[in-house]
Amino acid sequence: DSGVTQTPKHLITATGQRVTLRCSPRSGDLSVYWYQQSLDQGLQFLIQYYNGEERAKGNILERFSAQQFPDLHSELNLSSLELGDSALYFCASSGASGAETQYFGPGTRLLVL
Amino acid sequence: GQNIDQPTEMTATEGAIVQINCTYQTSGFNGLFWYQQHAGEAPTFLSYNVLDGLEEKGRFSSFLSRSKGYGYLLLKELQMKDSASYLCAVRDSNYQLIWGAGTKLIIKP
């Protein structure tokens, strides 16, 4: 158990809908990262937050947005969902310095029908 | 651009040794990471190298040569549970992780 929690574990929705994925980092970690992993594909970095502020942006679509709240939990919002958005979405967290190891949550499996 | 190369798939026999290579071209270097990922599960941290040389951790060892832009993960006494994908990642000068596509390791009895 990495100490990173994600909810929900599974999500099934329809095209055009909007969903919110939630992540709570390990105790003491200030950085949160979001990744997308499609079937049999590598990890695609989406976005990083550090202590409530956006720190880095990867290949995140305009339909996707994220935020980190004062209690350091983070939410990833996916809107106007398409079939191709079906994937595993992982959250990871790391310590204050940013120069530390990322630890991953169990992921949310999203299926868009 | 930044690039991490590792083999797509490797096959090895239970009890044997396997070496998974990773070469990188990145904007700066602040460490090379290895993660293990079983199908449908989260990546789990295996090792971290920032200085040249070999780091040994039980059955798993990791090596780095910064001058060659190269590292490898060595798995000894392979067990069936080692069947997984192994992800190489490099932290660049901005402290961002650049990920390889992963190497799927298949262990045969």
Describe this structure in words.
The complex is a heterodimer of chains A (113) and B (109). Chain A has strands at 5-7, 10-13, 19-24, 31-37, 44-50, 53-57, 64-68, 74-78, 87-94, 103-104, 108-112. By secondary structure, chain A is an all-beta fold. Chain B is mostly beta strands and 109 residues long. Chain B is 0% helix and 57% strand. Chain B has no helices and eleven strands. Chain B has strands spanning 3-5, 9-13, 18-25, 32-37, 44-49, 53-57, 60-65, 70-75, 84-91, 97-99, 103-108. In chain B, the strands form two sheets. In chain B, strands 2, 4, 5, 9, 10 and 11 form a six-stranded mixed β-sheet that branches. A five-stranded antiparallel β-sheet of chain B has the order 1-3-8-7-6, with no helix packed on it. Chain B is globular. The chains are: A mainly beta (113), B mainly beta (109).
> How many beta-strand elements of chain B?
11
**Would you list the SSEs of chain A in sequence order as H and E?**
EEEEEEEEEEE
> Main β-sheet of chain A, in a few words?
7 strands, mixed
SS strand fraction of chain B: over 45%
Unreliable stretches of chain B, pLDDT < 50, 5 or more residues? none
Rg estimate of chain A, integer Å: 13 Å
Q: Over the alpha carbons, how many angstroms does the gyration radius of chain B reach? A: 13 Å
Q: What is the secondary structure topology, with strand pairs?
A:
The complex is a heterodimer of chains A (113) and B (109).
Chain A: E1 5-7, E2 10-13, E3 19-24, E4 31-37, E5 44-50, E6 53-57, E7 64-68, E8 74-78, E9 87-94, E10 103-104, E11 108-112
Parallel strand pairs in A: 2-11
Antiparallel strand pairs in A: 1-3, 3-8, 4-5, 4-9, 5-6, 7-8, 9-10, 9-11
Chain B: E1 3-5, E2 9-13, E3 18-25, E4 32-37, E5 44-49, E6 53-57, E7 60-65, E8 70-75, E9 84-91, E10 97-99, E11 103-108
Parallel strand pairs in B: 2-11
Antiparallel strand pairs in B: 1-3, 3-8, 4-5, 4-9, 6-7, 7-8, 9-10, 9-11
